[in-house]
């Protein structure tokens, strides 16, 4: 059945169908014309994502140079150089070989007859790898309030900062946010999250004693969120090495404690990974996924890394979607990931793609056209 989604600022759960034939999950006011500031903000999102991958894009400039005067006799040399460029950008050997061999087959079968056609085929290959698993890159928040999002990861990956930036982004969309300081191991973690709560204007639940368990803090926060009508509870957790099995077991306790309050919660378990580690992030992701079932990834520090190709490998290897990327140190530099935007990084002359007048911040069965970039979240039954 069709559903209607809109800003959390205007929704309330209802229990019976609306008067029309489609089942409406939320009581939504008539969709107004999108205000100009929203579109301007969305255009800024595109520019941030585009510039955030600049170091990776610089690694790939050789592609344009190779294909500019391409001819069939130089195919092997060109593909060898292309393979090298993809490996340097951390696409990984498996993905690189798959892409290059697909191109080689299409070239010698006569499907690709020019440098421009090869470049477009390369972009299509990357896009297919990012989308073939069918995973949703938007936040899947269900139809009950509050939605619960757990943020997990290793020490130093940027968990708490990512949570704060996500809260800032959602708060600006009118979402009522409650933070939960579930990092009970690191001494300054609660203080850091309290600063983010003050900065974003969000409420926060912290441990009542030094010996409080993370699971009890999260349970208390979700109860408060449920009783006081919050839209989303953002749950911070302690950083832990994926090889520390006792701490990994604690994540299971946290997940169970949340589910006792709201069956089916958490709606999302987002793993924060340091983008500068490149393909070394794969073992971390596998372990966390095996323990708690990761639903999405946040890749941080990609603006300082030339290894952006790891995005493709992570998605292809694990089948877990990248939902957000960190492309800077600013509070607005946590950007929704979009496969179309990423594959355009392979087009060095794609300046025209940096600003798209059709972009919006949310989509659904409204009068708006679905955005090509900057999907913040969507709501499904």
UniProtKB/TrEMBL annotation:
GO cellular component entries: cytoplasm; membrane
SRP54-type proteins GTP-binding domain ranges (all copies): 321-334
Membrane topology designation: Peripheral membrane protein
Compartments reported by the entry: Membrane
UniProt xrefs under CDD domains: FtsY
SUPFAM superfamilies cross-referenced by the UniProt entry: Domain of the SRP/SRP receptor G-proteins, P-loop containing nucleoside triphosphate hydrolases
Keywords of the record: GTP-binding, Membrane, Nucleotide-binding, Receptor
Gene Ontology BP, a term: SRP-dependent cotranslational protein targeting to membrane
SMART domains referenced in this protein's UniProt entry, alphabetically: AAA, SRP54, SRP54_N
Membrane in keyword set: yes
Gene Ontology molecular function: GTP binding; GTPase activity; signal recognition particle binding
InterPro entries: AAA+_ATPase, P-loop_NTPase, Signal_recog_particl_SRP54_hlx, SR_rcpt_FtsY, SRP/SRP_N, SRP54_GTPase_dom, SRP54_N_sf
Domain of life: Eukaryota
Membrane spanning stretches: none
Recorded family membership: Belongs to the GTP-binding SRP family.
NCBIfam families: ftsY (TIGR00064)
Full protein name: SRP54-type proteins GTP-binding domain-containing protein
Organism of provenance: Sphenostylis stenocarpa
């Amino acid at each position: 059945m069709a559903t209607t989604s809109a800003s959390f600022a205007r929704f309330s759960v209802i229990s019976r169908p609306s008067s029309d034939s489609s089942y409406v999950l939320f009581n939504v006011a008539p969709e107004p014309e999108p205000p100009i500031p929203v579109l301007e903000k969305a255009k800024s999102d595109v520019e941030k994502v585009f510039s955030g991958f600049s170091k990776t894009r610089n690694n790939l400039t050789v592609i344009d140079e190779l294909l500019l005067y391409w001819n069939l006799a130089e195919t092997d040399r060109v593909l060898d150089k292309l393979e090298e460029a993809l490996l340097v950008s951390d696409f990984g050997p498996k993905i690189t070989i798959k892409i290059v061999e697909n191109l080689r087959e299409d070239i010698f079968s006569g499907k690709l007859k020019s440098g421009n056609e090869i470049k477009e085929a390369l972009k299509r290959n990357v896009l297919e790898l990012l989308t073939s698993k069918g995973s949703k890159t938007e936040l899947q928040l269900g139809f009950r309030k509050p939605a619960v999002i757990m943020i997990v990861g290793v020490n130093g990956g940027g968990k708490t900062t990512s949570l704060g930036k996500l809260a800032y982004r959602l708060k600006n969309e009118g979402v009522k946010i409650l933070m939960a300081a579930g990092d009970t191991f690191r001494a300054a973690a609660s203080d850091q999250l309290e600063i983010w709560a003050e900065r974003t204007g969000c409420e926060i639940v912290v441990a009542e004693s030094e010996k409080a368990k993370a699971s009890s803090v999260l349970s208390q926060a979700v109860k408060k969120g449920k009783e006081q009508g919050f839209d989303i509870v953002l749950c911070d957790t302690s950083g832990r090495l994926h090889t520390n099995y006792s701490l990994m077991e604690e994540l299971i306790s946290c997940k169970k404690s949340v589910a006792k309050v709201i069956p089916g919660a958490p709606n999302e378990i987002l793993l924060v990974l340091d983008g500068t580690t490149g393909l070394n992030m794969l073992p971390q992701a596998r372990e966390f996924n095996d323990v708690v079932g990761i639903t999405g990834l946040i890749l941080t520090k990609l603006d300082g890394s030339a290894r952006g190709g790891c995005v493709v490998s992570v998605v292809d290897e694990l089948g877990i979607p990248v939902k957000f990327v960190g492309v800077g140190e600013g509070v607005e530099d946590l950007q929704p990931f979009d496969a179309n935007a990423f594959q355009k990084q392979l087009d060095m002359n794609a300046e025209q793609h940096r600003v798209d007048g059709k972009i919006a911040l949310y989509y659904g069965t409204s009068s708006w056209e679905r955005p090509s970039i900057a999907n913040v979240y969507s709501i499904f039954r």
